[in-house]
Each structure stands twice: as C-alpha cells, then as structure tokens.
C-alpha cells in the first residue's frame, strides 16, 4: 500500500526577532534587529498509510502544529520533502485542498452570527457538493455527532462542544480522505471529548479516512490512535504503537492518595510520614492529606491494596504518569526507534 | 463560481441582518461627511459661486460623492489585518477558494445594500429639491458606471494590498488610515478637486486619488465632459488599476511565502 503522507528529513526553522527589554531594547531592535533561529522541526521522517489514525504527541511548542501545518500546506519546510494525498502541500492548489480537511481547535470557520447550517451551505458551494450528496452527508454527520436541533441556532449561542462538532461537520462535508485535526478536543468537557473521539473512530471505519491529530490529552491518543509520533523540541523521538511506548517509557504508575484521619498525626502507630510512604514506592509529593507515589506498573494494584490496609485513605486513584513526564523520560533516555 | 459568490453574498447579508443598528450607523456616517462638506460650501458659495461652483453645483457634487463613495469604498484592509494577525487566514487558505473572492463578495454585498439606500434617498430628495436633479443622459450614466467599476476595483486592490502588509507589520491599518486621511482631500471627498490649489489638484491627478472618486463623480455631474477628457480619465483609471493589481500580486505572493516561512 502506498503512503498517503510522506515526510522525508523535514526541518522547519523560524527566524525570531530578539529584543532586549525596555525602551533601549525596543530602539535597538528598530535599527539593528537581531534574529535567532528557532528549530521548530528537525529532520523528521515518517510515512502514514491510508486509513491510519496517527497522533502527534508532545508538550506545547514541541513542533506538532508546525508539522501539521506543513502537511496541510500552510507552511513550507525549510528543508526536506513533504507529500500528502499525492501532492506537495505548499503548491498543491485547489485540487489538494479538496482532498484534505483542516480543523484547528482554537480557530473556527463557522460564521459566528449565523446558524452553523449557513456555513455548511457556504462550504457546499465552495466545494461544489451536489445537493443530493450534501443532504445525505449532512444527515449522516448530524446523526453521528448527535447534533439534532443545534443546526438552526446561531453559533454564538452554542456550547464549545457543539461548536467543535459543527466545525467537524463543516470540514467533512466534502468528504476528504485526509484529515488534519489540531487539538480537536481543546477546552472541551469530558462528555464532549468522548463524543468527538467516538465520532472520529466511527467516521474512519465508515469512510476509511486517514486522520492525523495533535493533542496533549493522553485520552485522545489512547482512545484514537493506533500509532503515535512523539515529538519534542522538533525531533521525532518515537514512532509506533502507544502501548509499546508507554510500557517502555512509563514503567511506573502513579498512585494518588487523599489520606483520611485526623490532621496527619496520631499516636496509634500508623502515623503517616514520608518515610512510612516511602516503603510503598517513590514519594513524588507529600503534603497532608495529599500524597503521590510512583510504583512499578505491575505492582500498582497490590501496592494500592496494601496502602488501603495500612493508612486511613479517603481516596485513591491510579494514573499513568502525565504525558509530559513520559515525554521527558523518553527525551532523557532517548527512545530507540523501531520498537 | 457564480454559485460560490451567491452563497458568500447571501451569508454576508444574513450577517448584516443581525447587525441592523450598526448598518444604520455606518450609513449615517457615509451620509454625514458629504452632508457637512455640502453645508460648508453652501454657506461659502452664498448667492455667487466658488471656482465656477454655485450652490446647486455643490449639491449635485456632494450627492454624487455620497453615492459613488459608498459604491467604491473598500474595508478589506481591516478584515485582512485581523485574518492575518489572529490566524483566521489559516482555514481560508486550506479551502479551495482564494480568500480574495470572499472579500470581493463582501464588497458586493456591502455596496449593494448601502448604495441602494442612498440612491433611494437621493431620488426622494430630488423630488422635493430640483437642485440635486441630474439631466436625463443614459450615455453619461453608462460611462459613470464604467468609471465607478474601475474605481471600485482599484480601491478594493488598494485596501486588500494594504491589509496584506499585516504579513510584515502590525501597523497595516494605520497605513490605511493615513491613506484615507490623504484621500479626504485628494480624492475629492471634502471639496471638488477644481477648488484645490492647482499644485495639490495636480498631485491628485498624477497619483491614483482622482481615479478613486473625483473622476467618476465629475463624470456623473457633467464636470468632466468631452470625449477626450473622459477617455483620458478612464485611461488613468485603467493604468492605476493595473499598478495596484500588480502591487497586490506582489504582496500576496511574497506575503504568503513569508507566512509560510514564519507562520501565523
């Protein structure tokens, strides 16, 4: 199967004006501007096959959005080669644009003052969608996204989640084979996030679309992506299945405790101290009544049980370490490729 | 393309309907400026005339300015500045439609709505006030239509190109403000060019300012007459339109390259 997206040794360097603080700095920058190179993406290579859902993973400023924008043709690479849907995106023109959808979580294309349906009708005209297909696709998207009566309300009266769902409708009416989603769940509540994830999975199953998304919500990635591209400081650190990455990097789980009992002390022998907690695992933080322990993944259930027995515990939860930690670890250890 | 324009214009009008009050305010603003200028020249002219303009001539001139300014004015630099600075250009660039089409459609929508109101106002006033009536002259009106079209196209490209400066500077709208300020005098918005000092009027004629507004106004009122003068005026309009289209092409291509280099 030939790839739908190819990036070969792609780099992107921005020149950023450097300015010293204060009036003097402002004046100096006016007459003798100094520039600093920012390497947003460095020497990144990957291929994506049709039908894959791939997530770019990384902290803010890692280079996720820059990569996505290069694939969507908004930016061009400083060096290297990009190909998407059979085109060089930057010079792909209208034929390329008909084959992609770009959804930006923090920017909307819906006309603010009108009901979303007006934007849909506009896109129908822009993408030359025949009336019959338009009705059919709209009905399908509305059902899948459970939009119902939202279509006739002005966009400004919609909730953030409803708006993002409508953004997706507007972006998918021309049924593009390749979807670029930049933070599609940004700022949404848990229910709306889940609805969007369910939708993306269903949509891909039905139409075989390829989806590339960026997110820094771990749940987006675990629920959606069969494959992750982990990026930090512009470098591709890992390309492969998420479970393999987490198992390899995050060999630990976090046990978050809210301790009960009175005031962190007691003379009954089970006084909670950092030392006492340290016998169960590595204490990441402890300020009564909250404590965070890190333990080996496989030990997490047993350790939790022992903690519950040993201390008065009001609440306990087991979490994967924050994605930033996983990435920091990966960056520090340097994940070898070909997992 | 006609379907796309129809959809864009339809949406622009639907948005307008949400902002009826602000439309009325913009319309008032469009009427106030020439009305004040007319009031001043009316007082100055008294029973005589200034540089050949009697009261009735001023009245016709400023009614024509009112109408033709609304037909040719372009707000695109403000839109573009926002699109570029706030990243709204991104999804527009990802669609298979050049963003300029959206801007042109907005212009058509705006002009159709304000100019039609002003035309009605003019007709109503003309019933009561013979001074602002124009002689029946379809040939002249046809030439005016061509001159207005050229002026509107040129002002669109001026505004769009200036807006594109937002790719490089955060002061694009300030530049447009400056241009609007200069055109207040040089395009004939507060006085017919014939009343300006010859040197200033000369500058307005050599540059694009006369082509923006004063020339089509003078064609409509009959201040410019004779095939020679009309052809020269239209030719100047065409030349300046060409220059601004060239400037737009350059700014768009280089601006996009810069945008593609530095991001939005």
Question: What does this protein look like?
Answer:
The complex is a heterodimer of chains A (339) and B (264). Chain A is built from twelve helices and 13 strands. With 339 residues, chain A is α/β, with parallel strands linked by helices. In chain A, the strands form three sheets. In chain A, strands 5-6-7-3-8-9 form a six-stranded mixed beta sheet, with helices on both faces. A four-stranded antiparallel beta sheet of chain A has the order 11-12-10-13. In chain A, strands 2-1-4 form a three-stranded antiparallel beta sheet. Chain A is globular, with a radius of gyration of 24 Å. The mean pLDDT of chain A is 87. Chain B is mainly alpha-helical. The mean pLDDT of chain B is 92.
Structural class of chain A: alpha/beta
Major sheet characteristics of chain B: none
Span of the ends, CA to CA of chain B: 28 Å
Strand order of the largest sheet of chain A: 5-6-7-3-8-9
CA(first)-CA(last) distance of chain A: 21 Å
Individual helix count of chain B: 11
Report the count of strand segments of chain B: 0
Q: State Rg of chain A.
A: 24 Å
Kindly report the greatest chain-chain contact and the residue count on each side. Answer: A-B, 37 and 28 residues
**What is the mean predicted local confidence, pLDDT of chain A?**
87
Unreliable runs of chain A:
none
CATH class of the largest domain in chain A: Alpha Beta
Helix content of chain A: 25-40%
Layout of helices and strands, plus pairs?
The complex is a heterodimer of chains A (339) and B (264).
Chain A: E1 5-18, H1 22-31, E2 34-48, E3 53-57, H2 64-72, E4 79-84, H3 93-97, E5 100-104, H4 116-126, H5 131-144, H6 160-172, E6 178-182, H7 190-207, E7 210-215, H8 218-224, E8 227-232, E9 235-240, H9 242-249, E10 252-259, H10 274-278, E11 282-287, E12 290-296, H11 300-310, E13 313-319, H12 323-333
Parallel strand pairs in A: 3-7, 3-8, 5-6, 6-7
Antiparallel strand pairs in A: 1-2, 1-4, 8-9, 10-12, 10-13, 11-12
Chain B: H1 2-18, H2 20-45, H3 55-72, H4 76-85, H5 89-93, H6 99-128, H7 138-164, H8 172-186, H9 198-206, H10 209-221, H11 227-262
Helix pairs in contact in B: 1-6, 2-3, 3-6, 3-10, 4-7, 7-8, 7-10, 7-11, 10-11
């Amino acid at each position: 199967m030939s790839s739908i997206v190819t990036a070969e040794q792609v780099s992107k360097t921005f020149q950023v004006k450097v300015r010293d603080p204060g009036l003097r700095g402002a004046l100096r920058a006016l007459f003798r501007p100094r520039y600093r190179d920012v390497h947003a993406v460095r020497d990144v290579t990957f291929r994506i096959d049709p039908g894959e859902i791939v997530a770019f993973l990384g902290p803010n400023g890692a280079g996720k959005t820059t990569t996505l924008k290069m694939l969507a043709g908004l930016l061009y690479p400083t060096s290297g080669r990009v190909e998407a849907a059979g085109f060089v995106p930057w010079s792909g023109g209208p034929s390329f644009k008909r084959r992609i959808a770009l959804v930006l979580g923090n920017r909307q294309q819906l006309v603010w003052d009108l009901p979303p349906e007006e934007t849909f009708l506009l896109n129908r005209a822009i993408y030359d969608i025949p009336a019959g297909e338009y009705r059919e696709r709209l009905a399908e998207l509305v059902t899948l996204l459970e939009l119902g009566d939202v279509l006739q309300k002005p966009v400004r009266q919609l909730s953030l989640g409803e708006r993002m769902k409508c953004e997706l409708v507007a972006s998918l009416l021309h049924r593009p084979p390749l979807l670029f989603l930049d933070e599609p769940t940004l700022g949404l509540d848990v229910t709306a996030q889940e609805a969007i994830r369910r939708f993306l999975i269903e949509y891909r199953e039905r139409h075989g679309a390829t989806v590339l998304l960026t997110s820094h919500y771990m749940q987006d990635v675990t629920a959606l992506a069969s494959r992750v591209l982990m990026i930090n400081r512009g470098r591709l650190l890992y390309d492969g299945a998420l479970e393999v990455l987490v198992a390899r990097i995050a060999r630990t789980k976090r046990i978050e405790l809210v301790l009960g009992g009175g005031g962190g002390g007691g003379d009954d022998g089970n006084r909670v101290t950092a030392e006492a907690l340290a016998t169960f695992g590595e204490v990441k933080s402890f300020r009564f009544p909250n404590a965070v322990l890190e333990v080996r993944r496989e030990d997490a259930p047993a350790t939790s049980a022992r903690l519950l027995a040993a201390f008065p515990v009001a609440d306990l939860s087991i979490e994967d370490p924050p994605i930033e930690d996983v990435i920091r670890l990966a960056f520090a250890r340097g994940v070898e490729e070909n997992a | 393309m006609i379907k796309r324009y129809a959809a864009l214009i339809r949406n622009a009008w639907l948005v307008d309907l949400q902002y009826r009050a602000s439309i009325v305010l913009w319309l008032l603003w469009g009427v106030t400026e020439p009305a004040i200028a007319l009031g001043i020249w009316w007082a100055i002219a008294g029973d005589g005339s200034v540089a050949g303009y009697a009261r009735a001539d001023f009245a016709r001139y400023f009614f024509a300015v009112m109408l033709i300014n609304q037909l040719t004015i372009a707000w695109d630099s403000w839109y573009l500045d926002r699109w570029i600075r706030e990243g709204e250009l991104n999804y527009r660039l990802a669609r298979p439609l050049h963003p300029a089409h959206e801007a042109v459609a907005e212009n058509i929508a705006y002009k159709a709505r304000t100019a039609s109101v002003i035309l009605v106002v003019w007709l109503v006033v003309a019933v009561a006030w013979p001074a602002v009536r124009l002689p029946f002259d379809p040939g002249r009106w046809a030439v005016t239509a061509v001159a207005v079209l050229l002026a509107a196209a040129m002002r669109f490209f001026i505004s769009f190109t200036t807006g594109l400066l937002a790719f490089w500077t955060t002061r694009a709208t300030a530049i447009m403000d400056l241009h609007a300020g200069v055109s207040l005098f040089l395009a004939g918005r507060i006085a017919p060019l014939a009343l300006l000092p010859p040197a200033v009027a000369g500058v307005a004629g050599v540059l694009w300012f006369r082509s923006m507004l004063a020339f089509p106004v003078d064609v409509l009122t009959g201040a410019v007459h004779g095939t020679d003068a009309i052809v020269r005026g239209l030719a100047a309009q065409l030349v300046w339109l060409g220059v601004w289209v060239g400037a737009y092409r350059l700014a768009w291509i280089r601006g996009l390259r810069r945008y593609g280099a530095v991001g939005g």
